[in-house]
Write a structure and sequence with these properties.
CATH architecture of one domain: Orthogonal Bundle
CATH topology of one domain: Cytochrome Bc1 Complex, Chain D, domain 2
Oligomer: single chain
Strand content: under 5%
Strand order of the largest sheet: 1-2
Radius of gyration: 30 Å
Helix content: 25-40%
Length: 247
């Protein structure tokens, strides 16, 4: 009995050694994989290294973007402004989008989705959340009615006081369009202020420019074609598939 057990143990040891030796012969062989689809993605994934590149260092396919590269769908907003330095934002940031009817209506839709629950439909801080937590300003009162596009853009991105940052929720283009609509709410007429910001068909609509109001509270007007009903020539304008239409 003991002899047969000894022989069995020796045979098992030999088989185990043979299996281990065989497995070490091919270092690149992963061996048997259970449910391999869980390890290796069937479709190509971003930054996946499919094959070696004979030109690039170390055979990599992906390269670091050139200095100054702007991602698709983004704006050239690389000037660093500290999140608390809203005064610099007022004087530095310029709205690249014209005050067209299309842009203002997109801004209205974006405002209703991202801002209205706190700031209210009229921009008076009487949204459902604003009423409960208090401290939400009225856009048409005090210094708030004179804040310019750059100020509003910066606050949307970084937040201010009790308002949390929204830079991860709305992209740069959407921030500018929301800022445009907030300028309409500053008139104290709620959504009806949009019509005053855009004189439909007028080539000389009297609308604020991006730097029309500063922290000093002084306002100036600028006769410009920016307020006409013409379609914008800027990329991404009137993207109803993404931003929707005004109600």
């Amino acid at each position: 009995m003991m002899h047969s057990l000894k022989i069995s143990l020796q045979a098992s040891a030999v088989l185990l050694a043979a299996a281990l030796t065989t497995g070490c012969n091919q270092a690149n062989d992963t061996g048997l994989e259970y449910a391999p689809e869980m390890y290796t993605s069937i479709p190509y994934e971003p930054l996946s290294q499919v094959g070696a590149n004979r030109i690039n260092p170390m055979g990599i396919n992906e390269r670091t973007p050139a200095v100054g590269t702007i991602p698709r769908g983004k704006l050239a907003y690389y000037t660093h402004i500290a999140k608390d330095d809203v005064e610099t934002a007022e004087t530095t940031l310029k709205n690249p989008y014209a005050y067209t009817k299309t842009h203002l209506e997109e801004g209205k839709v974006l405002y209703s989705r991202n801002c209205q629950h706190c700031h209210g439909e009229q921009g008076d801080g009487q949204g459902p959340v604003g009423i409960k937590f208090k401290g939400v300003p009225n856009y048409s009162a005090g210094a708030y009615k004179n804040q310019n596009d750059g100020h509003i853009y910066h606050v949307i991105q970084w937040g201010r006081n009790r308002m949390m940052p929204h830079g991860s929720q709305v992209n740069p283009e959407e921030r500018w369009k929301i800022a445009m609509y907030v300028r309409a709410l500053q008139l104290g007429k709620g959504p009806d202020g949009l019509a005053d910001m855009v004189k439909v068909g007028s080539p000389n609509a009297n609308v604020p420019t991006a730097d029309s109001t500063m922290s000093s509270g002084q306002m100036k007007t600028n006769p410009t074609k920016a307020g006409s009903n013409e379609m914008s020539k800027y990329p991404g304008a009137g993207d109803s598939a993404r931003n929707g239409e005004a109600i």
